[in-house]
Amino acid sequence: MRGMLxxxxxxxxxxxxxxxxxxxxxxxxxxxxxxxxxxxxxxxKDLSQRELIIGEKQGKRIIYSLTSKGRQGIEEACxxxxxxxxxIFEEQTLK
Length: 95
Known about the structure:
Layout: H1 2-15, E1 18-19, H2 20-31, H3 37-49, E2 53-58, E3 61-66, H4 68-94
Antiparallel strand pairs: 1-3, 2-3
Helix pairs in contact: 1-3, 1-4, 2-3
């Protein structure tokens, strides 16, 4: 799940910079359940340590955004997902 959560966070940050709570809310909108702080913040820390995102303190919040390395990573991940799972999605949409 960690890999999927990281992918999801990176994808969300392609839309706009966000703080952790907003990221969790956006995930909840799509997944139906909101990740806990004990799930989301370690993922954000990991992505930051891997230099895929950067956090900037604005008031009491840290606003996360993609780095160029993160943008490249999400593009490569999307290509990989499409290559591996594209046929499955195509078959399901034809039914």
